[in-house]
Amino acid sequence: MDKTKNHGAGQLGTSKVAEPVSLGSVPVANAVARSLRERIQSNVLQPGEWLREARLCREFGVGRSVARRALRILGEDGLVDIEENRGARVSATTVEEVFDLYEIRAALYGLAVRVACMRASDAEIANYLADIDQLLEAAGEEQPAERIIALSEKIFSAMAGHASADAQKMISSVRRKTRFHYSYVALAINAQAAGPYEHWRKVRAALVARDAEQASQSARNILYFMQGEVARIMLSRGSRPLASAAAAP
Amino acid sequence: MDKTKNHGAGQLGTSKVAEPVSLGSVPVANAVARSLRERIQSNVLQPGEWLREARLCREFGVGRSVARRALRILGEDGLVDIEENRGARVSATTVEEVFDLYEIRAALYGLAVRVACMRASDAEIANYLADIDQLLEAAGEEQPAERIIALSEKIFSAMAGHASADAQKMISSVRRKTRFHYSYVALAINAQAAGPYEHWRKVRAALVARDAEQASQSARNILYFMQGEVARIMLSRGSRPLASAAAAP
DNA sequence: CTCAAGAAAATATTCAACAATAATGATCAT
DNA sequence: ATGATCATTATTGTTGAATATTTTCTTGAG
Questions:
Q1: Residue-level pLDDT at B47
Q2: What is the CA B141 to C1' D9 distance in angstroms?
Q3: Sheet of B87-90, strands arranged across
Q4: Is the CB of A63 under 7 A from strand C?
Q5: Is residue A3 over pLDDT 50?
Q6: CA distance linking residue A126 with residue A121, whole number of Å
Q7: B98, B220, B224: best mutation site toward chain A, by most A Cβ within 10 Å?
Q8: Residue B35 class from Cβ within 10 Å (0-12 exposed, 13-18 middle, 19+ buried)?
Q9: Is-contact A159 A116, C-beta < 8 A?
Q10: Is the per-residue pLDDT at B234 higher than 90?
């Protein structure tokens, strides 16, 4: 092929090498994945569109191994659907999928809170209580939803530290996948003044009492609440994609 | 290197190509992984032993790509620990790890039962009730523990069918990892006459009432029960490895 | 119009070469 | 002798090309 024409619509990049791909010491595939991620989230690449390996090789000037690996990374993130022997295409996020993602989050965050309640030292529990107080305070001051999200995720992440390596891997996996829908979460939090705070208070009380089952149940309820709200918001907006919000820590 | 001497102790195989690796149409890496799996479970390869890529290449007569992939597969199954830039070694399964595995199983099976209770049709619920009756009946007849395990897993698998693709992937992943400890499960079931059957009855009742939270809670309790029993058995036996039992469906 | 056979296109797998990293051992100053 | 520094070596990580397999498209006969 020749030097290619890069003016047409639907092109992957605006120039042959779309990004410096400067990450020299870090695997190149990550850089390619990152670049594609941006274009998927900014809707330059539209849902359903095929991501051909050969095309990626040309556009990024890399071999098929890295193009292939980049697609797998995006597949893990849920940004592309990989069909066996057929290729990868930009995935359209449906309300159902986001809904189901919260089902998983509820199960795994419930696990995290349960083991934290059982295994954390008294000092660690005290820290969690302080964090929750901070969260409730921020909620009372009606601080931006992004801050609420960040605080919540920080608490859950810390608690997940008490879980096994396998569990932590699953949790960070599902967190990667939901990161791209936080804009909806923000809307949900802003829309509903009551919010999930009553559940947070119950988590707090259960931590004090070291009642792992109760803490876990209340944590799950936080996620079920968010599940309902996010689904409601997505449906009312016709579930069309939004620009992605700032990600959590 | 030359044709190699295959008589020494600590060799990976008894001949250069340890298994026909006949699976022509199926990825060769799976065959290699299967072969290694057997030798790990039969303790021919002992915990802590390094699995060198170059060695595997020689022993199985394959390229480094497939050796590498085989090790990754075993890593997913939890049979080897892969250390960055250092290699893969046969993992020693600790009681703590098995214990934590049941924590994950409880969370994910709880999810499966919850969504099944919410989403299954009346006919499907009826099937689940019948399956549970069959399980309870088998328990009453004191049938072999393997059968109890198989029936339980069958029910959970069917219910997991109502969950999202992501959730199903996680469930089958954790199932793969626990498959190798079913021998302990069998012992646990045989040792404890009461068993988890009271919890199963509660799951049944909750399904009838379509009470998803209660069904989920009772399902988790089944796993927490098994968690305690398996840990107890492993500790009492010094947690030394057992020959693996027949796997579930 | 339907269906089957073959050609074309795309992905899947494997390998071999090169790069980067961690372990080993030798050398030298103290 | 001891300890630190640095070259050497063994081992894994990464990548591009070659080959195999699968899917899709085309074409032509009935």
A1: 93
A2: 64
A3: B50-51, B87-90, B80-83
A4: no
A5: no
A6: 9
A7: B220
A8: buried
A9: yes
A10: no
CA–CA distance, B96 with A165 (Å, rounded to integer): 11
Instruction: Please indicate, yes or no, whether residues B163 and B131 belong to a single structural domain of this protein.
Output: yes
A101 touches chain B (CB under 8 A): yes
The CATH number given to whatever domain includes residue B198 is: 1.20.120.530
A244 in a domain, yes or no? no
| B80: β partners | B90
Closest chain A residue to B75, measured at CA: A166
Q: Looking at residue A49, which CATH number applies to its domain? A: 1.10.10.10
The token pair at A201 is: 């208070």
| B133 and B70 within one domain | no
Residue predicted with more confidence, A96 or B194: A96
**Single-letter residue type at B37:** R
Distance B65 CA to C14 C1' (A): 7
Q: Does A133 touch chain B (CB under 8 A)?
A: no
For residue range B154-174, list pLDDT tens digits in order.
999 999 999 999 999 999 999
Specify the number of domains making up chain A.
2
Asked whether residue B244 is assigned to any structural domain, the reply reads no
Q: Would residue B197 count as lying in a domain?
A: yes
Measured CA to C1', the nucleotide nearest A61 is: D16
Which one of A211, A220, A227 would you mutate to disrupt binding with B, by most B Cβ within 10 Å of its Cβ?
A: A220
For residue A185, being part of any structural domain is answered with: yes
| pLDDT of B143 | 83
Taking the CA of residue A127 and the nearest CA in chain B, the distance in Å comes to 24
Nearest residue to B209 (alpha-carbon basis) of B129, B109, B108? B129
CB contacts of A228 in chain B (<8 Å) are: none
- Chosen domain end from A42, A65, A92: A92
Instruction: Fill in the DSSP letter of residue B83.
Output: E
Task: Answer for A62: CB within 7 Å of strand D.
Answer: yes
Structure confidence at residue B186 as a pLDDT band (50, 70, 90): confident
Distance, angstroms, CA B87 to C1' C23?
A: 12
CB of B212 less than 8 A from some CB of A? no
Which range of residues forms the domain containing residue B8?
Answer: 1-92
Q: Return d(Cα A203, Cα A206) in angstroms, integer.
A: 5
B87-101 pLDDT, tens per residue? 999 998 888 999 999
| pLDDT tens column, A202-224 | 999 999 999 999 999 999 999 99
